[in-house]
């Protein structure tokens, strides 16, 4: 039976903002500055995972780590080589000290100033899982018709598959209890982890509350990395998780998922490359 995400009472809330980055030297400093310019209704920490960047990302992060205004509230973790966004998120999750976690990309497509509106329902005890939905025509600019339609199509597919009613499955801004996120045992290595996260929540009966957020999508020339292959991988992940307890068809879906992952994940992704921890502040709360 589907369960709405309504806690009876809400203990002290603290926030971990997880920012996976790969070669984001053009926007990284502005992204971090925006995070710290926001007044949050609870304690906040920023966890930045540098996923093997080869540009000036590491130097920018070192400067931020040395800045007295941000040093006590920032965690910087480094992968020696690029392992994919999903791996970066899983690494950052290991260091999260907040009661709730939200992922925020460093590409400036989303505004950190929208995050307090995700926290408000949690503080009010109304919902413990909150998604920031991009609503076409409401402070949202999509890079192309194909991108917008692709996102709506995969969201519709998820809604049919899981009997859900999400507006925007692929939003980056997903506020989820940290312990619950860890319990999902996420495995996807690339962009597919975003889909896996939502699918596993829906699979266990969670129906997130959605609040509108602003969005200004990048074009491919500006660094957008999502392609049609990621859309195919998304459909495979959604289907695999939905039927994982169906032994009659699960092997078939698994083979499809392997092919899709091979198409969509970045190359040269050693799965066991350990992260390098540059800085770790005291736990939040």
From TrEMBL:
SUPFAM superfamilies: Nucleotide-diphospho-sugar transferases
One Pfam family named in its UniProt record: Glycos_transf_2
Span of domain Glycosyltransferase 2-like: 16-137
MF annotations from Gene Ontology: transferase activity
Record family assignment: Belongs to the glycosyltransferase 2 family.
Identification of the protein by name: Glycosyl transferase family 2
Superkingdom of the organism of origin: Bacteria
Keywords assigned: Transferase
């Amino acid at each position: 039976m589907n369960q709405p995400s309504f806690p009876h009472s809400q203990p002290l809330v603290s926030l971990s903002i997880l920012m996976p980055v790969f070669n984001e030297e053009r926007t990284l400093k502005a992204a971090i500055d925006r995070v710290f310019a926001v007044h949050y209704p609870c304690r906040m920490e920023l966890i930045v995972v540098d996923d093997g960047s080869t540009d000036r990302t590491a130097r920018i992060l070192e400067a931020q780590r040395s800045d007295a205004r941000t040093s006590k509230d920032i965690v910087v973790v480094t992968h020696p080589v690029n392992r994919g966004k999903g791996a970066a998120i899983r690494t950052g999750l290991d260091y999260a000290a907040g009661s709730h976690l939200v992922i925020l990309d460093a590409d400036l497509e989303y505004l950190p100033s929208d995050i307090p509106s995700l926290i408000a329902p949690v503080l009010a005890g109304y919902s413990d899982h909150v998604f920031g939905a991009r609503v076409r025509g409401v402070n949202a600019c999509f890079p192309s018709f194909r991108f917008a339609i692709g996102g709506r199509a995969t969201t519709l597919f998820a809604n049919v598959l899981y009997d859900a009613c999400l507006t925007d499955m692929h939003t980056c801004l997903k506020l989820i209890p940290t312990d619950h996120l860890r319990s999902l045992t996420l495995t996807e290595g690339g962009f597919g982890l975003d889909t896996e996260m939502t699918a596993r929540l829906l699979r266990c009966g969670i129906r997130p509350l959605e609040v509108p957020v602003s969005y200004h999508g990048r074009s491919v020339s500006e660094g957008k990395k999502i392609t049609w292959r990621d859309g195919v991988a998304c459909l495979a992940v959604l289907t695999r998780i939905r039927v994982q307890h169906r032994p009659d068809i699960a092997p078939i879906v698994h083979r499809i998922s392997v092919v899709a992952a091979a198409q969509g994940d970045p190359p040269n992704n050693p799965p066991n490359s350990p992260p390098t921890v540059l800085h770790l502040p005291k736990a939040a709360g």
